[in-house]
Every structure is written in C-alpha cells, then in structure tokens.
Amino acid sequence: MKKSPLAILFLTVLLDLIGFGIVLPLLPTYAKQLGASPVMIGLIAAIYSSMQFIFSPIWGKLSDKIGRRPVMLSSIFLAAASYAFFSQAVSIPLLILARALSGIGSANISAAQASITDLTDSKSRSGAMGMLGAAFGIGFIIGPLVGGMLMTNYGISMVGIFAAALNSINFLLAVFFLTESNKHAVRLSTLFRRDRKPGRSDDGIFSSIAKKTAAYGETLKTSFSSRPVALLMIINYIYSLAIVNMQVSAILLWSEFYHTTEAQIGYLFAYVGFISVIVQGGMLPKLSKRFGDHKLMVFGHIASFIGVFFIPFIPQDSMFSIGLVILLFFAIGTSLVNPLNISMISLYSYKQKQGQIMGFAQSVNALARIMGPFSGSILYGIDHRFPYILAGALTVIGTVISLSLFKYDLEALEPSAEVAD
User: What is the pTM of this model?
Assistant: First the structure.
C-alpha cells in the first residue's frame, strides 16, 4: 500500500471537513439573524445535502473519466470560493448560494473514496476507508470549536474567511502533493478531439437518462428483494431523518432556551464528536464481537431515544451537567447505529450486487438529510419540543424494526451471502 499518497489524501479530506465543521453549527442562528423563517432555515440547511446528493455521483463518474486529481482540485477550489461567498453573505439569497456552492465542492468524497480504491488492495482497503472515516470524526471535533471561537470574538465574516483560507491552503497542498491515482484516466485534451474512434460515440441525453432511471429501478428492486435488507434500508432512512431533524433544531434550542454562546455550541459538538471517535474507532469492534450486531443495534436505538427525546426537557441551568449526560447517550447511539446499519446491509446483501446496494443506501441516507432540516425547522417553529418528540418516536420505530431482525441469523451467514425472504 502506498502510504504517502494516502496520507496526503487523508490530509486533504480532513482540512475539507474541518472547514465544513467550522460553519455548520452557526448556520441556523445566523440564518435567523438574517430574518429567515423556519421553512427558510430548513431550506438553507437542506441545500447543502441536496447538492451533495446531485453532485457526488457526477464527481465520482468524472473522476473515472478524467482522473481523481483534477476532480479533487476543482472541488476544493470551489469549496474555498463558497466559504469566501459565505463571509460576505449578508442576505438570505447569498447565504443559499454560498451553501449550494459548498455542497457542490464538498461532494468530492466519492472521488476520495475512488482514490483509496486505486491505491489499496483488498487487504488494506478497509483500514484506509476507516482512516477516511476518522477524518470525519476529527473534523467535527476541531471545526465546531474553531467556528464557535471565531464567531464569538470576530463575527460571522471571519468564520467564512478562515474556512476559505483553510481550503485555499488545502488547494495548494493538493496542487503540489496530490498525485493522480487513476491510471486509466483519459487526458482532458483527448475529450475534445474530433478524430475519436467510430462506434464510441456518447449516448444522447435522453438515452442516458432512460438508462440511469432503469438502473435505479433495478437497484431498488434488488435492495428490497431481500427482507432484512429492506428493513435495514427503512431503518437507515427513519434513523437519519430523526437525527438530522434533531440536529438542526438543537442549535436554535441551545441558543434561545439555554442561552449558550457560539463557542459553547462548538464545545457541545466537539464533545459529541470526541465520544463518537472513541466508540467507533476503538470500542465498536470489541463490542460487536462480544454482544453481536443485532443486540448493539437495539441498544444503539434505545440510547438514541434517550439522547434525542429528553433534550428539550433539560432544566435551563443544567445544560452542561444533565445535558452532557443526555448527549453522551446521543453520541453512543449514533456511533453504534450508523456503522452497524451499513455493515449489516453489506452482510445481508447479494454478493454480486454489493456496490449497487451500498450506493442505494447512501442515496437513502442523503434523502433523509435533505428532508430532516425541513421537518426540524418547521416543527421547531410550532413548538420547540416537537422536533425531539418526532425524533424520539422515529427511534422507537427503529427499535421495533431492529428487534424484528433477530429472526434473520446474521452470525450464521458467510459474508455477503444471499438471503432469501
């Protein structure tokens, strides 16, 4: 395994995610300061995930064609520009534009994952993917802390400038140190040549759309032809919806009802991120071996219920005492449910169609991340407790579905074995 390219790739993704983490916790309160309604706050929060939903496969496919390096460079440059826009976003339309550009730029995770595939063999790939996952956790520890401190001391403009500067440094590092890993990439100049070989003309746009629609329908049919996979896809959606629904409204709740500063909100995010890194990075493999994935999935849902339902009922002067205990359950629950869901989908999936089904699982998750901000902000506008009541109800449903999975013997399966209903 080539260590140097992977180290540069890890650093590139880490800097990207720190920039994202700097801005994320401040968005709802800043949008409200600009006069955004609950629905508009939901739109601003959802536009980022919407752009990722659209552009992740585009960046990924483009990296197959022209190479990983030009895609990573282009997307990092766009992310830097988006944060520069954000620093000057003194109106809601500019804020929406900044978040849309940021979503497009940060959709490069598919290209980063493809780079890991290029640089690793089957034995070292899971470890490298785990390294990429660690970048997410570290980014959510450092980013909110820095963002909260900058907002408290210098204002929102400095937050955007710092994130833009961080991504500009990221861009320069990528220019000088990030190498091309896709040996089959076509040079950009050859894409515009007129002397292309006959019989290799591209499909028309309507033919391409028809083929993609048919492929998506086939993936949907494949995913739901196995009962346990179908149940896990449902868990994937409702659990992600519950968590995102809660996260967006929590920032407003902490600011308005618990009078936390931007810096303190950053501390709370970092606290959750720190626990998540410990659970996912060090404890999960041992817990899975000792208790089994089924039991941990149920426990994760129960912990999540405690971690979301009771948040608005914390006494106002106990956010950093009782509140930290509640958030401990939240961090443990999400650290168990999310990775276990993906792992169990993989184990229950058809061996020959792993890529299709895992890709569909990511689409389901992205859809929930688009819908969650709307439900959370709208319900918060009605009553500040409603988003957490809904999130609690969804985790209860997830618990019931998780219990129904016990009749499907995961431990008796070979990895990626086919499971009939």
Answer: 0.71
